[in-house]
Amino acid sequence: MNNRFDELLIETKLRLLQMHHDAKSGHLGGNFSCIDALMALHHLVMAEEDRFILSKGHSAAALYATLWSLGKLSEEALTTFTRDDSLLPGHPSGAGIPGLQFSTGSLGHGPSLAAGLALAARHMGHSRRVFCLCSDGEWQEGGCWEALTFAVHQRLDKLFILIDQNGLQGFGRTMDVISCEDLSPRIAAFGAEVRRVDGHDPQGITRALSPGEHGLPVVLILETIKGKDLHFENSLESHYLPLTPEQYLAARNAIMQNGGAR
Amino acid sequence: MRKAFAAAVLENHNTEDCFFLTGDLGFMALEEVRAAMGGRFVNAGVAEQNMVGVAAGLARERLRVIVYSIAPFCYARPFEQIRNDVCLGGLPVCLVGNGGGYAYGHMGPTHHALEDCATMNALGVQVLAPAFDEDLLALVGRFSRPTYLRLGLDARPAGTQAPVYNPWREVLPGKRGALAALGPMAGVAWQALQGLSQEERPAVWAVCEFDEFSIPEAFHRQIANGPLHVIEEHVAQGGLGTHLTMDLVKRGIGCSSFTHRFALGYPSGRFGSQNFHRAQCGLDTQSIRQMITDQP
């Protein structure tokens, strides 16, 4: 991993942290479990013509920060996050944000939308890839399985679904809520090509997003830690609670020490 | 109208930029469409939420998409996908619901669509309710924004010709006020009242669109000094009656009396054919005729 990306990753995480702190906004946990993957995807994997859908819309801030790191969102725009008269609500709108094509936030929609984009690309003879980032709890939505079935049947091999498997959802651990610690065997049983990777390793994520080998959609399970580097790392509190000023400063220090690429 | 719909698709929309998605429906109606469209005809299976999401994805890439299913599975099951994925993006997806109202009769209440127009109107979807088979050529493929096309059964009297398509058409002249009928109910009213003299009956209007209440002046004149009747195979809330009366009130136009016949659901708790349910709601030919002749 190059030093510049490493620096940018830390810078972006700090900016993400500040966004949440300034806005007194929750949902930090899911943002910090996927920021490494979002940065790897947008800086190291995706080409300009590729498509991305943030199905786990509650991680909007991580996407906004990533787009900021790419120069596609301004510093001024980030300061409006979840404020009045903003283009950056807590769950993203499909209007006015570079590269975003849909309004997401109600879980389970992204895989179908992504399948539609992939089908359109194939019909039009484009080689573009479609990436869709989901949460693990999101796969309790039946729509995800409808979409997976469809994508496998249609052999949409340019479709990559990433699942942020941090093991925590809104009101409990996924293994306690729905008896599911690992989605891999279930998704493999549906016929997709399943891969697993450390979701905090940008280089590993980049490698794992190589083309599929069987002409099928690829599902990449990201093994992540909810609220990584925050004081409430891997705890339910990270799903909702905003940061106090003291926690904010502690998190800044932790990110500066640990937050770069592995 | 399924056959007319399929013919209209083949006539105007078998183009490289048009996809047709079906939720595993179309037996004895869509076979020719499937053969003609090849890979652009996709049987998405019994998974309507995914089907509408996929349609949104296709439409976002500037493709035009027709989504077809039995009406309730088209507008109700994937409601959130229509709301979030199609409507928030203003995407050119045409949702086609076959069997508006009680059209699926004996199949039972899960297959009826009694609140579809209201539901789609509430989302800002363009609602089109063709009255006659010929209307399909004019209506299929209105892709400028999210659209819901409600298919029913053309019920006009045998041997008659439908006037050229217009959102509001007078299909039977009359001199006793006016009757506005939603979609195929115009044909039912036409059947019911054609035997009465013009002095005894209202003018019958086929109303096929909600969006632009460019109500003809002739209709205003007819109700200015006479009764207004509205009939629709749809619940009262959010249907033609509520839209029309609100529009008339805004314009300051009154009428001497107002009768509204609409879908009542299942008032007897019994189930049957489309005509059985229409009769229970006063929407069959006999009830409509009586509604007119009983009026003092």
TrEMBL record, chain A:
Keywords of the record: Thiamine pyrophosphate
Cofactor section: thiamine diphosphate
Superkingdom of the organism of origin: Bacteria
Coiled-coil residues: none
Entries under Pfam families matching the protein: Transketolase_N
Domain Transketolase N-terminal positions: 14-253
InterPro entries the record matches: THDP-binding, Transketolase_N
Family: Belongs to the transketolase family.
The protein, known as: Transketolase 3
Source organism of the structure: Hydrogenophaga intermedia
Automatic annotation (TrEMBL), chain B:
InterPro entries attached to this UniProt entry: PDH/Transketolase, THDP-binding, Transketo_C/PFOR_II, Transketolase-like_Pyr-bd
Transmembrane parts of this sequence: none
Gene3D superfamilies the UniProt entry points to: 3.40.50.920, 3.40.50.970
A Pfam family this chain is assigned to: Transket_pyr
Residues in Transketolase-like pyrimidine-binding domain copies: 1-158
Protein name: Transketolase, pyrimidine binding domain-containing protein
